[in-house]
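In the design runs reported in the main text, the only information available to the sequence generator was the tokenized backbone. The following block is the verbatim input for one such run; it is reproduced so that readers can re-run the procedure and compare outputs position by position.
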């Protein structure tokens, strides 16, 4: 993921952060009409200063990707031209795959990633993931803020495996069906379940128990698969009833 370098360096922090947010917009994680979390919330989630957040948002405003209004949250406008999904071959190919196929591949690859991460993750990254989970507990009714934090959580985990190739593979799989994942997060209890899953993953990583970490992660991916596929392929009965209020 662009801008996903661990421990963003001060010299390039504005550009890296702008790229990270641009990627979220291009990949569909953030969409037109979404309100960004506050500068303080983004600063805490992404481990950068509020000044860096402000500067990065200014870059995106210059690109025409966000709208900055005095006294209101920054709003996503969108991105001109092709989306990342249409312009990156690997992600374009993923669009044609059945959810079960993608989920099976993701489980297999992430199982290896988290086993490596269990042995290699730094205390600083563990603390960051723990802090992210604590913050996510306050985002149960804020899907946009949660999505940004969720991406940071998984990106930190992926990078902790220490293998850039695996990190890139699993990052592409994470981006599969993000449009539907957004819809799934609107359903009652979905974010709560994810936060609980994240908490179990961090706890297992902290004990350096690879088996428990893998079990916690696979359970999390199953929950993601179930809730996302329910949106992608709603039952006839669900279509008649419509979404729950």
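Verbatim output:
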């Amino acid at each position: 993921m662009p801008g996903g370098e661990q421990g963003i360096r001060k010299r390039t922090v504005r550009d890296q952060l702008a790229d990270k947010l641009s990627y979220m917009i291009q990949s569909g994680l953030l969409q037109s009409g979404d309100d960004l979390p506050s500068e303080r919330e983004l600063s805490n989630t992404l481990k950068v200063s509020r000044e860096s957040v402000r500067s990065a948002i200014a870059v995106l405003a210059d690109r025409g990707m966000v709208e900055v209004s005095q006294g209101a949250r920054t709003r996503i406008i969108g991105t001109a031209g092709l989306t990342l999904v249409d312009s990156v071959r690997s992600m374009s190919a993923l669009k044609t795959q059945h959810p079960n196929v993608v989920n099976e591949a993701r489980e297999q690859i992430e199982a290896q990633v988290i086993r490596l991460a269990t042995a290699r993750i730094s205390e600083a990254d563990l603390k960051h993931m723990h802090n992210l989970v604590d913050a996510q507990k306050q985002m149960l009714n804020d899907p946009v803020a949660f999505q940004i934090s969720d991406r940071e959580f998984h990106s930190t985990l992926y990078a902790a495996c220490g293998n850039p190739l695996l990190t890139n593979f699993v990052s592409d799989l994470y981006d599969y069906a993000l449009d539907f994942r957004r819809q799934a997060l609107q359903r009652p209890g979905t974010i709560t379940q994810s936060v609980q899953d994240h908490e179990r993953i961090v706890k297992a990583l902290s004990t350096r128990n690879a088996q428990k970490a893998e079990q916690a992660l696979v359970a999390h991916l199953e929950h993601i698969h179930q809730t996302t596929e329910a949106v992608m392929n709603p039952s006839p009965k669900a279509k008649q009833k419509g979404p729950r209020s």
